[in-house]
Design goal:
Layout (H helix, E strand, L loop, with lengths): L2 E5 L5 E4 L3 E5 L17 E9 L4 E7 L3 E8 L1 E6 L4 E5 L2 E6 L4 E7 L6 E8 L9 E6 L9 E6 L7 E2 L5 E7 L4 E5 L5 E9 L2 E3 L2 E3 L4 E5 L3 E6 L3 E9 L3
Parallel strand pairs: 13-14
Antiparallel strand pairs: 1-20, 2-3, 3-4, 4-11, 5-10, 6-9, 6-11, 7-8, 7-10, 9-12, 13-15, 15-22, 16-21, 17-20, 17-22, 18-19, 18-21
Length: about 240
């Protein structure tokens, strides 16, 4: 029997620091919900908005796979590996923190907020050599299809991480129906509606809703309006 957990957008935790508004799907920082610690290896899903010219000062991470997906604006990144980059809508950034890194993130613009998803995945290998990756996606590859943007495989489409996880992004026209088949039967899928409305396995979802499914082999996805959907397939046991 398929197991389902529904997280409506309005039930997420909110950290409002003035310059930063961050909605937490899972427990993070000052938001703690014992029923929402993680979904399998998916530990953090933060929906962040950073004010003009503001940002996160230099801070550490270790033994975590960290993925950033910009939704609006430009995010400047600097880290202890020597990377100084800007990520924009249409890009995806990944860091394997491994033995330890320091980094900072700032809104590069003084005339608009920057909005992005920050996602943490628990790795299947600890204390790896820290690594940075960034790619620009082709929007045409996600129009009315599910574009793979992350996998465990270095030579596969998208970025890669140290975990048996696959991410897919779809920009669907209203009425479009797609099927997603899981890569591994012991995995689960967490679907996040970035924009619009959709129905997944008969569950209606609205903007910023999240739906976790496991003990399932296939997802049926129908866009009830023009919709942008992120699918995160992750191990449920790790």
């Amino acid at each position: 029997m398929t197991n389902i957990i529904l997280h409506k957008a309005a039930t997420r935790g909110l950290a409002d620091h003035g310059w930063l508004k961050s909605y937490h799907t899972f427990s993070f920082g000052g938001y703690h919900n014992p029923e929402r610690i993680h979904f399998g290896a998916l530990r953090v899903l933060n929906d962040d908005s950073v004010s003009k010219a503001m940002g996160f000062g230099t801070h550490p991470h270790d033994n975590m796979e960290i993925i950033s997906i910009p939704l609006e604006g430009d995010l400047e990144h600097k880290d202890s590996m020597g990377n100084t980059t800007v990520i924009r809508q249409g890009d995806i950034q990944v860091m394997s923190a491994g033995t330890g890194i320091y980094h900072s993130e700032h809104n590069k613009n003084r005339d608009q907020d920057v909005k992005f998803l920050q996602i943490w995945i628990l790795p299947n290998k600890k204390n790896v050599i820290p690594r940075y990756g960034q790619i620009s996606l082709n929007p045409a590859d996600s129009h009315n299809r599910l574009q793979q943007i992350l996998s465990p495989n270095q030579n596969d489409e998208g970025v890669w991480i140290h975990q048996d996880a696959w991410f897919h992004l779809g920009n669907l026209d209203e009425g479009k129906t797609l099927t997603y088949n899981l890569q591994k039967k012991e995995n689960g899928v967490y679907a996040f509606i970035i924009e619009g409305n959709a129905t997944i396995n008969n569950q209606p979802l609205e903007k910023r809703d999240g739906l976790g499914l496991w003990d399932v082999e296939t997802l049926s996805i129908t866009a009830n309006s023009n919709a942008t959907i992120l699918l995160m397939e992750v191990p449920m046991k790790f």
